[in-house]
Queue: 2 jobs
Job 1
Amino acid sequence: MNGQFQIATHVLTLLCKQPGELLSSDYVAGSMNVNPVLVRKEMRKLRACGLIESKEGKAGGYSLALPPQKISLADVYKAVKLPPALGQAKNKPNPECPVGRQINAHLDHLADDVEAAIIKKLSTITIFDFVNQFD
Amino acid sequence: MNGQFQIATHVLTLLCKQPGELLSSDYVAGSMNVNPVLVRKEMRKLRACGLIESKEGKAGGYSLALPPQKISLADVYKAVKLPPALGQAKNKPNPECPVGRQINAHLDHLADDVEAAIIKKLSTITIFDFVNQFD
DNA sequence: TTGTACTGTAATAATTTTTATTACAGATAA
DNA sequence: TTATCTGTAATAAAAATTATTACAGTACAA
């Protein structure tokens, strides 16, 4: 299991709900019951992709770098870099076997197709859309 | 990481390439360099879904229960029951927070949509198609 | 009917991944 | 100059995955 996408989406939701405010990792971590360092780690990825901005020092924190209509869940997915949806084998198939010799190439190609399908789906939903579902 | 889908697909590929033969978990495990018990565990799932058959006793092993044109990779995906593609948070968000109170429901709904997109993609590919890519 | 070669399954250990915790340097506002 | 943040590393704890061992049960074959 892996809650990185959920953490990132949770923070973006909070940022979207409180526009203009800088939210600290402690505040956010409190809303989700998770360690603040984990929040800062995800924020680093989001910032590297230009989705959020951060400000250090007293009264610092995080804010959206783009209007929420411009941030898709596909952007979030790509930013957090989850392990592949089909999993990832770490075995080394037997190169003597005609199947073992080739299968990783075919599985990799398949994994790429699946990732593309996920991204296609997620690209239809923005953080704005997601947040609008809330009461 | 998690190689369960890869194991299942590897076995089905071997079964497809050697129709009529019963392949043992040891033989299969040798082709992929993985523990035979792991193979038997995945086979249990595939059998529960009616994709393969197994025969105990001497000269026993596994065989396809359906023609490979009738087995889609979506069937395999559903059989192995991977963890959700978007991950799965195990935190309990703060119920005092308006976002924390609702977000899991919305994240679950999103996860369902993504799983559906994956299955839709995988349902277009059969084991027969997959194996036909091999030289 | 006895030995051999399998599956099925449980229990446990080893490995890997994820999350939590601690610590502290650096930035910035009051 | 003090308090409150981010950024980051190091390490520990927890959880998930894979490997290993063991053995009961099944089926074939000599």
Job 2
Amino acid sequence: MHNTDKLKQILHKKNLRYTQQRQEVWDEICSTNEHRDAEDIYNSLRKRQTNVSRATVYRTIDVLVKNNLVRRLDLGDGRSRFENKMGIAHHDHIVCLDCRKIVEFMNEEIEEIQEQVAKEMGFEIVRHVHQLFGHCLDEKCPNK
Amino acid sequence: MHNTDKLKQILHKKNLRYTQQRQEVWDEICSTNEHRDAEDIYNSLRKRQTNVSRATVYRTIDVLVKNNLVRRLDLGDGRSRFENKMGIAHHDHIVCLDCRKIVEFMNEEIEEIQEQVAKEMGFEIVRHVHQLFGHCLDEKCPNK
DNA sequence: ACTTCTTTGAGACTCAATCTCAATAGAGGG
DNA sequence: CCCTCTATTGAGATTGAGTCTCAAAGAAGT
């Protein structure tokens, strides 16, 4: 389904209005696979003459996150990052402490064990955070 | 080793000064195994007539975290929680979304797999965050 | 077009955490 | 015990991501 249609569909289902601003924010988020924060997204919009206010960027992102179109990433540095979730399989993240590169990983075994562990401890998991922080072995990375 | 001695030892090694305030903050953190934030710790100190300023509480916690006496926990709700790390084995956390109860877990298998995964992706892990969020099956928990 | 209700923008506000800087106080040496 | 050299402290200002307010603008159904 095209991005525009998907957005319209979801907004309609939730009795929310389809607006130019919401479309612009959604387009901007779909335009890359980087892990950007709200300020980055706001600035990218301004750079291409699309003036959506900061408040609206935040509000729209909230709508997209709540409706599962966008994923919020908290890497513990005090601001949320966002990634387009459309047709993207679940994954977790490895972050390089030197160059701040973010790489995605997914391991079915870990997913299963953590489910089992939670069950044993009397929990039903809704979501999880699994992040690895370390040093990448990339040549171009500083501290090499 | 007694708490006071441990603190003195570490401060000395780092050429930092042993002060009454640092001792008080460290004592307060050692006094329970709850996962409290800086404000909680600050308030507990005031409640027992120990006046350490908010800034000093934050600064002392930083010193303790950097020197591995205390662990910082970021559960994604906008404030850091802290736990005494002295003689405490590594563990991760499960959080109940209803009653905010925090339970600790540890699974050697997951630890090993994540190490392996990181290696395969060209990373050397320094630390990790692994948190499970869901609903506990406790009778006393709301939403039952 | 009319009406109703939602959304937007601009700036004020919140809140955890950090910074500033003058005053205070460890710690080692004499 | 005092001196000097620095580190530390307290009080309040500041930061910065994110949220709130409210009047004006704009969807969407009729």
